[in-house]
Amino acid sequence: MCVVCKKRYAQNELIRLQCKNKELIFFSGVGRSFYLCKECINNKKLSKIISYLCKISKENAKSQIEQLLKEYA
């Protein structure tokens, strides 16, 4: 289930992310993670939700999201 829109998708259709040491990364295989659908990548609520999940500022979350999406594409 996507953490932004709360819609259910097949697991292979979602991006699996993780917060580790207050940094947003792709899932490392260990620890808690969350899923993000490809439709919500450009959602306005995304930085707010990520900042809440990782316990970081919205500005920091926004920059980490942009950096991660460059690696994903």
Q: What would you note in describing this structure?
A:
This protein is α+β, with helices and mostly antiparallel strands. It has one domain (11-72). Helix content is 33%, strand content 18%. It is built from 2 helices and 3 strands; from the N terminus they run E-E-E-H-H. It has a 3-stranded antiparallel sheet. Helix 1 (46-54) crosses helix 2. The radius of gyration is 11 Å and the shape is globular.
Q: What structural class do you assign from the helix and strand content?
A: alpha+beta
Number of domains: 1
Radius of gyration: 11 Å
The sequence of SSEs as H and E is EEEHH
- Main β-sheet description: 3 strands, antiparallel
Q: Which consecutive residue ranges, at least 5 long each, have pLDDT under 50?
A: none
Approximate shape: globular
Helix content estimate? 25-40%
Our measurement of the CA-to-CA distance between the termini, rounded to an integer number of angstroms, reads: 21 Å
Strand percentage, roughly?
Answer: 15-25%
